[in-house]
## 1
Amino acid sequence: MEELLKVNDISMVFGGLRAVSNFTMEINKGELVGLIGPNGAGKTTAFNMLTGVYEPTEGTITFEGNLVNGKKPYQVTAMGMARTFQNIRLFSELSVIDNVKIAYNMHVKYSLPEAVARFGRYFSEEEEIINKALSLLKIFKLDDKAYEQAKNLPYGEQRRLEIARALATEPKLLLLDEPAAGMNPQETHELMEMIRWIRDEFKLSILLIEHDMSLVMNVCERIYVLEYGCCIAQGLPEEIKSNKRVIEAYLGEEVS
Amino acid sequence: MNNIRKRDIMSLIGCFALYVVMQLMIMFEIIGPFWELNIVLIGINIILSVSLNLINGYTGQFSIGHAGFLAVGAYTGAIVTVKLGLPFELALIVGTICAGALGFLIGLPTLRLQGDYLAIATLGLGEIIRICILNIEYVGGASGLMGIPRHTNFAWVFLVGVIVIFFIKNFVNSAPGRACLAIRENEIAAETMGIDTTKYKVMAFTLGAAFAGTAGVLFSHYFYIAHPASFTFMRSFDILTMVVLGGLGSMSGAITGAVLLTGISAFLAEYPEWRMVIYSITLIVLMLYRPQGLFGNKELSLKMFKLGGGNNGRTAEGK
Ligand SMILES: Nc1ncnc2c1ncn2[C@@H]1O[C@H](COP(=O)(O)OP(=O)(O)OP(=O)(O)O)[C@@H](O)[C@H]1O
Ligand SMILES: [Mg+2]
């Protein structure tokens, strides 16, 4: 299997707090990997380091052999990583379709003069962007709401829009930060089916943060477990399920 | 896409019709010299408010130093015509480029600041520009640069105004413009969607500054003089008020704000003692009852008058 992402012994220190400590991970092409752990374990912090929001205090991250450390988030996105946020961050005053169109920006080739004087590649590329955006929205059953303001969508649809927007950057690795948070069981089930389908359809790798253990167990092929910033276990769902330290970390929670 | 082209052509025809009507009214003196002067002023203020709206409204960067760029345009333009004896058309280009270049240089370091800090920095920079001009003898220092020929007329202001409005309208409906909107909406998300936020903030700031410079050239070549007192921070606030009154992030709003406030000022010219009172009350009432501005961030469109047509007007064009 071909290696896509390699995380080598990274740590993130905030003042006296080691939010993530000596974390090592790799993701291969086409894999669907889970990252779980109790509240405050450092999952989102790990995501923020992968996507360039924070620079790791120690350790290195490489993506397809290229160093991620020190890159800005937009450069990381250009390398082929896209993410969603735990607390939804849509362009809420803009329309649903504009949210997706913005994510296509990286691939736009027309120049500023072509845009403001409306000639050359402007019309053809804009049309292409709209069509691509609409077909992506269709996959997420949002096409009939394309021209509504994003903030007016119900919660579950906002989450789906975030995923659609991330996919529009045409990533090789999709990072989802608790995409099922706040969804009801029915929606969650559909979402998990969809995540697997996305991976196959778009031929990408997915790293999924999830709080709910049972959920990750069903959909992920490999799992990393964080607790207090340290990776306490990794392996196949079966192995994680029976791991004593994981059960302790999730004490009181049913591991099914 | 053909629809967009058709709509653009229709709007241009509309603009031309408006121009012909107004020009005829000026020629046959239905519009007298007092109102002609104010119409030119309205035109210049429209250019200023739509260009500031690009920075403050669409990109969400709170700048309040617009008068500084207006001054740069006014003076550099006047240098071209008065000191160098070159044509007015060149003055327009030079004034625009100089103000834009300064905007670029100022934008690079300051746009890393956020919110209040950026506001204070731009306020300070606007004043610095004015004080610098005040101390340059070459351009007349405190007594101003006099003897500027009147090249600006209604036709020029109208032409430049239409170009600037179309420029900004098209910009906002393109990829770079959407990048600016994304920055306004959520900078972190914009960055994560592959947008180089610094680049687009500086781009919007530079373009806004450049158009303020164009307005400056028109201004000094209408009023025969470029004087430091015309470019104080009060002037910046005037422009900001127009944008906020109309609704940040709305082209229709910026235009309406400029027309309304300049118009009110002109109407009240006969009652100078009441002018500021009525002006202030208008603002207070408006901010109490419509804090998002007259238009919010929507655009004037037929849809606005239909029931339930509350969709963000900007995107209506993309359909
Ligand atoms: N910018 C920051 N400055 C200081 N401390 C931070 C910062 N970001 C996160 N932390 C701390 O790091 C720890 C890990 O936080 P993180 O958000 O990564 O946890 P998480 O695993 O995503 O938790 P949750 O399941 O609640 O989302 C927490 O103690 C948090 O308070
Ligand atoms: Mg988190």
## 2
Amino acid sequence: MPKLPAPPLPKSLKPKPKRPGEGNGNGNGNGAVGLSHPVAEAGVSAVDWIDERTSLSGGIRWMLFRKVPRGVNWFYTLGSATMFAFLSQAVTGVFLAMYYRPDATGGAYESMRYITDQAFLGQFVRGMHKWGSSVMVILIFLHMARTFFFGAYKYPREMTWIIGVVLLILTMAMSFTGYLLPFDQRAYWATIVGVNINGTGPFIGPYLSDFLRAGPEFGATTLSRFYAIHMLLLPGLIIALIGAHLWLITKLGISAPPWLKGEPDPELEQTEV
Amino acid sequence: MADRHKQTKSKYTLDRKVPGAFEGETVTRRRLMGLGVNGAGIVAASAFLLPALGFAIGPIFSREPFEWQPIGPPADFTQDTYKTETVTIVPGLGEVGKSTAYVRARNPAIDTEPADQYNQFIALSSRCMHLGCPVRFTAAAARFICPCHGGVYNFRGIPVGGPPVRPLDRFYTRVNNGLVELGPRYSVNSELRRFSARDPGQPLDGIGQYLYPARFSTSVLPKN
Ligand code: HEM
Ligand code: FES
């Protein structure tokens, strides 16, 4: 394995080299860097214990301390921003799910009212989830625009782009299924319209909307169906695909901005005689 | 065409000099094991995938039952204006399962579609045929107007403006025990020919009737 660069720690946190003759607490006074405090050592040995059995540290360094080309800029942070927007949705969504009831006869609306009016910080967390969903959609489009205009979809990164397109579709499906959940007039009619737009697809459209509604009419199970898709099926798929997306990014390295001229390696320029 | 390789390669593992081959054996044990393991995996995966998939798509194939719903004596309904009636589309769901029908008596002077036992009273569904918002009958204009994208229908429910793709859906009506009753919903094309209920946004003229086939799930009139 190639030697990986050391983490960029500030000077004050870097371990000081031992003075000659000083022990390292392990009893071998060979000058190797060591920690003498038993508590600090317990932490180190716990990390070592895990690492010896999993080799996780190599993977973490592979992921976090990789080389990036010159000229990367703030636009390269849009992907991470999208990921953090998703994480915020996932965390706030899990806590909303503790109060939410997908009951079409009125329970859903009442549980949303409870979250908004009674639950401690409920309005705030609901607001985070509601506004955060728009933030995520905006960020995912900005991130897509960055990769498009920087030509980052080109060889060998086509698969990263394709996975991104699936993530975009899944995010849209998230927004569509989530919009029904407050179960107020806007949610209800917007979903009716959305399902009917699905239905206008030729041949399979009518069956697709039967599938979405669980029947020919908006019925008792439509809401719970949307809820299960919204909080179980789609988040699971999104998490798996974000993992694949990040793995490809790390494996292939981030692309250089298009205005950067490739610089030939001076060693390759030398003419061998 | 004769396959040249067939002659040279024996089907017996012994002839092919597979190590440890038995007399008369045709499939290597490695290959048999591979088939067995893959087969077992397929069986195990199908055992949970197929039922789950069937469960998820089942509602597409189950036909909705319906009941005739009495809405009042025939004298309640006139030929020149609509009366608003609440119909239950999905029972047991409260408000969400209800919809609105606009009902009037058939007027042979304007209702040119052929008369039969099911359209002595004209019952229009309030569902807009653009994308399904609820239309409202405006008596002063004798028009149905949709709040969502400006769809307008004339007195007979035929679109005269905006994006709707076909006339308003209708309910079968009949008179039973001295009361007008509403049956299942059905769709019509621009000549008011009947089709089993389609979703909004699906035109039924010309090629539309083939692009948007009937579904298994819509309730139909029992044959009498
Ligand atoms: C990709 C991420 C997500 C997006 C884009 C998204 C989008 C939405 C939207 C648009 C709403 C409607 C909000 C409103 O009008 O108030 C909503 C509601 C909801 N979501 Fe999500 N969601 C995401 C992730 C999650 C996750 C991971 C869960 C749970 C595991 C979840 C659970 C809920 C619940 C319980 C509601 C109902 C509460 C409410 O409407 O405020 N969501 N979601
Ligand atoms: S839903 Fe009525 S005009 Fe669009």
## 3
Amino acid sequence: MSSTTLAVAPRLPWLPLLVGALVLLAWDLVVRWASVPQVLLPSPGSVAASLWQAAPALARHALATGGAACGAFLVAMLAGMVLAAAMMLSPLLNRLLYPNLLLFQLLPKVALGPLFVVWLGIGLPSLFAFAVFVSVFPVAVGALAGLRAADPNQLRMCRAAGGSSWQAFWHVRLPTSMPYVFAGAKVAATMAFTGATVGEFISANAGLGYMVMQAQARSDTPLIFAALAVLCVLGAALYGAVGLVEDAARRRWGTRR
Amino acid sequence: MPEAPTLIAEAIRFDAVGKTFPTRPVPLRAVESVSFAVRRGEFVAILGPSGCGKSTLLMMAAGLETATEGRLERGGVELVGPHRQTGVMFQDATLLPWLSVLDNVIFPATIRRIPRAKVLEVALRLIETVGLKGFENSRPHELSGGMRQRAAICRALVLDPDLILMDEPFSALDAITRDEMGDVLLDLWQHTQKSAIFVTHSIREAVLLADRVLVMSRRPATVAEELVVPFPRPRTPALADSAEFAAVVAHLRGVIARNMAA
Ligand SMILES: Nc1ncnc2c1ncn2[C@@H]1O[C@H](COP(=O)(O)OP(=O)(O)O)[C@@H](O)[C@H]1O
Ligand SMILES: [Mg+2]
């Protein structure tokens, strides 16, 4: 019980923040004293200035990327869990799909990006589909592992009480799978942003990835850094949101065995 | 008995029941031509060497395994699957760790889609009877092994079954807790007319709790000996300290030793 209260109070990670500040300072000093050209490595100050100046454009493009990534994440979560549930409940489907699922999990999926442009053209549909594609596998594989991790004794107990296999799924397998699903969701959250950004590199006219390509063409390196900084914040925000939902779920159905 | 629900005097009957597992390369014969019946209100203990097929026998009674030979009858009707009026206890408490003690106790009602309100009172009274009052909202990981097994007893009884099947329910507990749990069961059985099959390794438990003890042979399990326990009910834990009790235990130990040697 006391362990629950421990988990609630958030503490600022002072030491990592200190390390970050030191890196920024070192970066600034190196750029100043060695007079590194701005195109190669802009100073933290000029990145900050770029962030400030381009704020409206950054916000607009961040909205596009964030929207695409979050949407793709949600679709991937739903599709991945439905896929895992279907494979759990149908041995045939499992035999057909599971090896392929593992194979895709191992492939460098990002390399398949250009194919999506070939199939769906330049624009939101192809980059959205691509972001879903790269993030659905960790969810499906994680959820399936979780559904299968159910304790045989608990399943037998459920059956002895008269439970159908559907009830065993709902009352035993699904709760068991929750930690696995959240682990998959965290990987999927970062994969969704990777997918959206790479998609924008190759197939978009909006978004932070697109903005990075534009800035690169103009040799506006401070703007590249600024866009990347915003991207990091967005990615961390989605990851953090998943973590918050996980904490809430754990407090509601918390299991410490 | 003006309102006897049925004329069948037997809670469960095994008729030449056998079970062979289709293992490879040779099929494994776990149970062979077992025939016995448990009368309504009778408490039957089963003793036997480990691995002889006692759990298999009990799982068939629970409707979780099918017999490959013979036939089981539950209240005069052929048994084909888990029965609503049968409560089961396993070696481990197998509580669901994400549910509170109360929700675990009520779980069979949840599965049978019986409204919570209908069983709540019974559940709370059972929880109090086994000494878990105040722990209704605790999670299983906050309980000791003995307390978890108490919750499992409540779960097995919550739908007021007429037959309880217990597969070495206390064997994972330490000796003192184990005797305590035996006393809890004895106490519960003073007030009920439930039938029970109780698999155990403890001769003391068997003699203290049971009306009749079946001694199983080595695998494939079959009923080797049968002993009617000569002590009237109600019994108290103090019975276990009497000389008559010690004599019955010694006799049974001899029966088991002879059965092992054969
Ligand atoms: N599902 C199964 N498949 C194959 N063999 C089994 C299965 N369940 C039990 N057995 C075997 O049947 C025999 C009896 O097991 P069990 O009934 O658990 O014995 P006991 O409960 O008396 O210790 C053992 O040899 C065991 O290995
Ligand atoms: Mg056993």
## 4
Amino acid sequence: MRRKVILWNSIDWVTILVYLILVFLGWINIFAAEYDEEHKSILDISRRYGKQTIWIGAAFLLAFLVVVIDSRFYLFFAYAIYGLLIFSLLAVLVFGREIHGARSWFEFGPIRIQPSEFVKFATGLALAKYLSAKHLNINNIKSLASAAIIVVVPVLLILLQPDMGSALVFFSLVLVLYRNGLSGSIFFAGIFVAILSILTLFFDKLIITTSIIIVSFAVFWIVERKMKYVIYAMAIFAVISGSLYGLKEWFTFDLSNYFILVMSVVLSGLVYLFLSYRRKIRNVSIIYFLMVGALVFTFSENYVFNNVLEPHQQKRINIVLGIEFDPAGSGYNINQSKIAIGSGGFSGKGFLKGTQTKFKFVPEQSTDFIFCTVGEEWGFIGTLTVIALFSILLIRIIQLAERQRSAFARLYGYVVFSIISFHVVVNIGMTIGLFPVIGIPLPFFSYGGSSLWAFTILLFIFLRMDAGRMEYFI
Amino acid sequence: MKDFYSNRKYVIAGLFLFVSLIYIIRLFSLQVVNKSYRLSASSNVSRSVTQYPARGLIYDRNGKLLVSNEAVYDLMVVPNQLREFDTANFCTILNISIDDVRKKIKQAQDYSFYTASPFLKQISSKTYAVLQEKMYKFQGFFVQPRIIRKYTMEIASHALGYVSEVDEKAIKENQYYRMGDYIGKSGVEKSYEDVLRGRKGVNIYMVDVHMRKMGSYKEGKHDITAIVGVNIVTTLDADLQEYGELLMRNKTGSIVAIEPCTGEVLALVSSPCYDPALLIGRIRSENFIKLQQDTLKPLFNRALMAQYPPGSTFKPINGLIGLQEKVIYPSTEYYCDQGFYGGGIFVGCHNHDSPLNLPRSIQNSCNTYFCNVFRNILENRRYGSVAEAFNSWREYVMSFGFGSKLDSDFTNELKGFVPEASYYDKYYGKNGWRALTLISLAIGQGELTTTPLQMANMTAAIANRGFYCTPHIVKSIEGQSDIDFRFTEKHKTKIDSSHFEVIIKGMDWAVNGKPGSGSTARRARIEGITVCGKTGTAENPHGEDHSIFIAFAPKNEPKIALSVYVENGGWGSTYAAPIASLMIEKYLTDTLTKGWLEEFILNTNLIDHEEKGNTLE
Ligand SMILES: [Zn+2]
């Protein structure tokens, strides 16, 4: 059943207005970041700002095309679009041009296209379509696995390029799952793991292990509310670890305290399992396995950090965590970026007056570090405005998503929210030193055709769905 | 379908708004609360480049350029700013190998990743010209111009001194200096540092991330223009100085020549000397250590710092004091039978005519005579005690500039030593010593020590018949009408000028006396010029005695007074007197009439012991 709607009237102009403001602000900040005394025109196409002018024009054209297409198209062809773009990811690994050690770009004459940008909306469409199926229980392992596969396939292909930043973006889609009913405990366990992994890098593994054991006892007490059990458990643990330590001292074994602690956990675990089985205390085993899981996680994370990550990646992470202070080494980007933003003060140095910007102290300033230009030239007022605009946009997207009558459109709305918010949070977070340097662009702001077009398509598909919400009942 | 999870929209929106809030707080603290980033940003873009002014030039008294400046270029590298570059091209320009490049970059990295360190020091201006055009290709490198000293003649290293990087002490003492600045460390360079250095300037540039200059900061509002150092004309006579150094080759010792009526130092030779060019630029520290470790101590300025007993060259002073105290008269005669005997003390003398009056005793350098004079001075009944008389003697001696620094414009001048009565009280107890106890002072031996500069000054005072002007090395400073008042002031000795003629007569005879009359310094004679001189021998407990000669010429209206010391040279007449005479002739007539004497001196090697013993008969 189809109702005729007038697109002009039903499309959400609030979102479009915020979109236009963001694109405009991005454009003038790219101009400032790349400004060159010899090329004063913003339309000079030999400069990035001139090129961005073209990309913006093309983006508007794309937005128009996306909106005039029938909204059912996106539902029906969701998997096809997904498949096509997955194919493009395969193709780029073969035909792509290698730049800075990553094979992420197709080159067509003067234009470079980054397929990983476009895969985001395609994956979103596919995921929304899969999740919107009736009677799907997302907490069912099989459905969860299928949803995961949709996301993980592009992630793996992008990691092959390799492009860590773009791959990470897909993990934001867990928000979509959460909105669609993913168990809160799994969702927050994910957040817990994220926090734990950061703490692991911060502290010695002995302290982490001890803390996990203490937390486990606390959880045990909270769950069981029987002090007696907790004291028994602690006593067992104390006896086992004490005797292990005694043996080590007696025979002067060359064992670390960490090893003794882990051995104690394993041995006392066997005793706990035996006792809980006899006394039918079900929670013991759950808590115990969670604890072991946490321990294994911290261990493997340490292993990955020390043995898998490249030294420069380790360094970047350490710098964000404040473990290493090195103002001109690998912390150089973050430091210069903070100087740029910090020196802007309350009201900024003024358009084209930023010295950090003008003299190129911040690398990648028109792409990943465009937020620095805002901070330096427009000050706190500027940065606050940009964050406010993104907040308005994203809250508006949630509002629009929530008013959809179809699950598909609503879920896709959350895809848009997840992807844009992840980009915003990570990109701004990295420029102000709260996140590691992960090279992903600031939506609508950063220089580059691919990212601007991909975000425009991402957003306008949703606006088309929203405009057509009364058109069909999908 | 009922949407059970609708409330999760609040969780999701809440999470995002929570992060936004944290970001806003963070931005507020970065941009509004914390002011330090503003400073970092301006220090990021502004680079203060110190402009080192050229140091003042140094000339000799006749306008010959002695010291000038030369620009050299150090190629510096900042390792973390290095980008890939065309190594082959780079190596060709600098004429070094790729291995060198790797090694030097490694060295620089070991020193620091972020601060500049020298990659290649003192590249030629020709290489610099080629390199400069291609500098943009070699990011991370830049060229630092430096001004170093250039010596036009290899002379007067001790008098001119040297320049080197300031040490921490100097930086603490004087706000002007910063790490890496240059400062005069000795000689004229040190004593006239304030004049020679000029004033540093600062240019503040805006630079981009590659340290490329992007114009001046705030239109140069904060720039300070450098002021070039002031030129100095020294009192040195470059030719005389050069000749003196030539004559002193292969000998240790010194020559100090002074223009008596002005106190201007015409030559100041300390031997062995060194090429002043050894102490500039990158070779400085290495050479400095070598010179420091040299057993002949070339860095030691003997002319100012060697303190010897003056020996017989001191006899004229005792004669003058005797005359002034009226304990002798020019005609006073003493018998001498190969020495002085008195109170169980014996001072030997050589074989000569006897008895002798005052001028003849100077001519013959009779020890006995001056022992008697000295005894008369100390046992003078005018004074209540020997100690009182001794202190009065000391006053006379000190009025010639002995026992204290002359306050010249040399650095490192030493005082010498003229003992006080209390000094002997300590040794012998109060009233425990007599005139005869100190009798070695009569012939300039004993505790008395003087420096070659003081001896030259004494000679000038005798030549001037009773006064001296403090010896100094700077004749004029560009732009200043006068030199320091302390150099033009006449210091009167405590001897009436009328007493000098007879002493000068003795010194004249010592050089020009008839053969057989016992003249001790006939080798110093110059045809047509009346040279007055006095030989001396400083006892050296460590080896052969030091040969000393003081002289001035001409006798009337003296133009040059000098002291010559030749260490281990034996009798004063052997080496010191010929050298003095050659110097005088060179200065007064610029000719050489006694080529054989010059040849003898040039062929004398007192340093290399195997060749020693080359004597002239
Ligand atoms: Zn005698």
